[in-house]
Inverse folding.
């Protein structure tokens, strides 16, 4: 974390010990300095190690992306002056705009959109644009700004997730409230797997968010295409508080099996969560129950 603190003297020590990059992530000290906006440190690093400018981490994320993620406009401009490409993408297809929107950096996002408007048209490998990433961050003001730039609120990702699905999955309740109140039709949209906003909120573990969505008349008994309920999904995602809330408030969910014949106990066992498993067994679920095909496991995509 020397680069994060901007300590140049310590950097010389690291140089002598050849500790310039992380073997776990591939991040260099320049990545970190750019993220934290350590301007003088970054300039000195590039004077000593010019090759760091083009170095990517193991996800193909460059220093320009880290500067955008940190929201430091001066740092970004400095790196662009060094010849980096503003449209460069990481391995997952994300641009600098995706990164700063993901982190809710309003000023950086406005700067990029106003100076490089083509970035608004770029989607990552999952089909997510800047609006999707901003929704995940929970920054309502940023989402409203992007909508003013004519991004389509109805635009879905490759697996047909909306901005509402994504912010529910992240448990961003203020963002969800804004989207539901401003665009109530989003509540009726299901993704590629038949999941609605309620299913995604259950995955997040945010009980207050699930309660809010139920007040908007989403059906607690609704299932995905594979028959999974909100209880299945909360067990699958290790959300103990959500499991307790659902079981105590809607105990009939314990009796619901999906299309494979699995109840919540099967999903908890497959996922390896002993705490949830014990909780469900205390509710008199049968430890000897089996799936339709007599197996006790399967893999689900949320």
């Amino acid at each position: 974390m020397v680069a994060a603190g901007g300590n140049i003297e310590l950097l010389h020590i690291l140089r002598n010990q050849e500790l310039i990059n992380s073997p776990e992530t591939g991040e260099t000290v320049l990545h970190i300095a750019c993220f934290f906006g350590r301007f003088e440190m970054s300039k000195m690093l590039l004077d000593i190690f010019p090759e760091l400018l083009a170095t990517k981490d193991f996800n193909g994320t460059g220093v320009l992306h880290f500067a955008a993620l940190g929201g430091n406009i001066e740092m970004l401009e400095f790196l662009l002056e060094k010849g980096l490409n503003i449209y460069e993408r990481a391995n997952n297809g994300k641009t600098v705009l995706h990164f700063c929107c993901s982190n809710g950096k309003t000023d950086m996002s406005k700067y990029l959109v106003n100076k490089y408007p083509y970035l608004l048209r770029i989607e990552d490998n999952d089909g997510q644009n800047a609006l999707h990433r901003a929704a995940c961050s929970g920054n309502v003001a940023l989402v409203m700004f992007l909508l003013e730039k004519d991004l389509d609120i109805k635009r879905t990702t490759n697996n047909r997730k909306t901005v509402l699905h994504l912010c529910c999955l992240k448990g961003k309740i203020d963002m969800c409230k804004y989207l539901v109140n401003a665009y109530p039709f989003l509540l009726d949209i299901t993704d590629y797997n038949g999941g609605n906003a309620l299913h995604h909120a259950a995955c997040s573990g945010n009980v207050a968010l699930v309660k809010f969505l139920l007040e908007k008349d989403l059906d607690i008994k609704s299932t995905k295409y594979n028959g999974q309920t909100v209880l299945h999904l909360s067990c699958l995602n290790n959300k103990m508080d959500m499991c307790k809330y659902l079981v105590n408030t809607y105990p009939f969910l314990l009796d619901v099996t999906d299309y494979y014949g699995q109840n919540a106990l099967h999903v908890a066992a497959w996922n390896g969560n002993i705490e949830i498993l014990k909780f469900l067994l205390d509710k008199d679920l049968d430890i000897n129950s089996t799936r339709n095909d007599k197996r006790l496991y399967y893999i689900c995509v949320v």
Remarks:
- The two ends are 35 Å apart (CA to CA).
